[in-house]
Amino acid sequence: MWQTALREGLNTILTYLDPLHLLLGIVPAFLISGAIAALLDRESILRFFGPGANKWIAISVASIAGAILAVCSCSILPMFTSMYKIGAGIGPATSFLYSGPAINTAAIFISAAMLGRIGWARSLSAVILAFGVGLVMDLLFGKARARETIQDSTENPPKAGIPWKGLLVIFILVAIYMVGPNLYKGILMAAAFGIGYLLFTQEQRLNWYRESWSLFKLIFPILIGGVFVASALKVFVPGSVIVKLFGAESFVSNIFSSLIGALLYFSTLTEVPITRSLIEMGMSSGSAIAFLLAGPALSLPSMILINRIMGIKRGMTYIILVILFSALAGSVYELIF
């Protein structure tokens, strides 16, 4: 069994390190993150997502921002780190952290096609959950986060000017995520590099690449280790046990489902066929909803990094909120249908 677990973990890492996935999935994530940190001025971020911004609007926008991205729970972390580092409020930042992997156009339609009503319920619940998590995080930690941002702004005054060049490059890089892994995605990436080279000064280019590399060194090693552990754990959890735990329509089953989903790692959209298989094996509809809501948004490697970025108290609060709200959404679905 240990050999099987080792083989499963290594196979998942090799899949994750596939050159196409690295070039067209991981690299753009870090380039977007580096661009946010290096090319956007702090004033712009604080105006729309900072502690002083209208939290209802900021959290609402962040809650649906994931619709334009197709990222997994780990690929979203560099972008979240950059937003948080620049000074985004904890409410909008955590709403974006959840919505990125949980809500995207591809997931919405694939879930609906493969899971029917459960798929549509997952999509609606994900938007509500993203807003709810961000709002609660803002209520709990918003004031403390505002004090941190004010202190940091005093020590590092914001840059002046409208960052239109940075916005242009970030727009192109985000567009890369909206295109499948094909020739067009490669062309967009080359265009982003070309525009960055032509429009930016040498110092700006160096800052962009330096920030991207810094985030890569911070996140990627932990990410790989976490992916290995999460994949290896699947070997020790037999399918019969999962069905026994998740077959009943109860809040306890939904909690177990969201917890297991949170621990495992899912590449983008892989949670949909996995959930369909579990439903066919006997998983209840509520547990399926909980699994679909917590699974894409969290994973063992992402939880480790979230705690490292936000601190244990805030990180664990976010994780617990996602797990609890996912289970609650599953129970509400069972009550209605």
How would you describe this protein?
InterPro entries: DUF318. It is found in: Cell membrane. Keywords: Cell membrane, Membrane, Transmembrane, Transmembrane helix. This is Putative permease. The protein is mainly α and 337 residues long. The chain has one domain (2-336). It has helices at residues 2-16, 19-39, 42-49, 55-64, 76-86, 90-102, 105-115, 117-155, 164-177, 183-199, 202-233, 239-246, 251-263, 271-281, 285-294, 300-310, 312-336. Helix 6 (90-102) packs antiparallel against helix 8 (117-155), helix 14 packs antiparallel against helix 15 and helix 15 runs antiparallel to helix 17. It is globular, with a radius of gyration of 20 Å.
Helix content: over 70%
Mean pLDDT reading: 79
Residue stretches low in confidence (pLDDT < 50, at least 5 long) are 157-162
Quaternary form: single chain
What letter string, H or E per element, gives the SSE order?
Answer: HHHHHHHHHHHHHHHHH
User: Based on DSSP secondary structure assignment, what is the total number of beta strands?
Assistant: 0
Work out the strand percent.
under 5%
Specify the structural class.
Answer: mainly alpha
Indicate the topology.
Layout: H1 2-16, H2 19-39, H3 42-49, H4 55-64, H5 76-86, H6 90-102, H7 105-115, H8 117-155, H9 164-177, H10 183-199, H11 202-233, H12 239-246, H13 251-263, H14 271-281, H15 285-294, H16 300-310, H17 312-336
Helix pairs in contact: 1-11, 2-5, 2-9, 2-11, 4-6, 4-8, 5-6, 6-8, 7-8, 8-15, 8-17, 9-10, 11-16, 13-15, 13-17, 14-15, 15-17, 16-17
